[in-house]
Amino acid sequence: MEPAEPGPLDQPSAGNRTYSITGQSVVRPIGTINSIGEVGGTRVEALVGDLVSLPFDAIVCPANVFLEMRGGVSATIRERAGRSGGRTVDQVERDAIALGPIRIGDAVLTRGYDLPSSYVIHAPTVEMPVDRASRRTVALAMGAALKVAHRHSFRTLGVPSMGTGTGGISYQDAARVMLSETYRYLGTVRSNIVSVTFVAWEQEFLDALRAVPAPPVDIGATSRRPVATVARVGLWSGT
After folding, report:
1. Which of 86, 110, 203, 238 has its CA 20 to 30 A from that of 1?
2. In what order do the strands lie in the sheet with 156-159?
3. The pTM is what?
């Protein structure tokens, strides 16, 4: 599978940058992109904006193990992905459910349909929709999403806050866990991922991300070992 052509966010890093993205899918202004860190040649960035209005190779969808998309970020992704083309609004959810159920620590991949992003990576943080997430499940979901992006040679990945809505995790805990797992994973592989961009709906999550110390500059720059296991990946290839 060939990754999608890079979008306007896939540009060389030069500190903080501002983009104005036009189109009917934009529902709020796109903020300045903040450089958070760099691991093994992959930029880690963050901004305040609308995840489903931005063009990435793939975006991450927090999920339950049955891959239902009925609340929070997942419901927004479900709605935006099914706006046109004669499909039912829940087509992306149907595709995901057909690949489940899965375990926390696994992830599956579906098409993005009407989203600006080409693909959606579904990564569970809870067993059931009403369950509470934990720092462990958020870390497992983040790692699984990164494995899928790496395996499919995606260059740009958009990530929302995970486990912070009904999951009950604070923005501060989510930021620490998600960045820690990102630095850990990217330090173990030779990845084609150019940038991992955390997209915050609330300023509080961006502030929490910026407060997490960056890794040493040489992390992942020298001896990097391949990961021993790869997350279960499903690609819905129907038209």
Report:
1. 86
2. 17-18, 32-39, 42-48, 195-200, 156-159, 58-64, 119-126, 108-111
3. 0.80
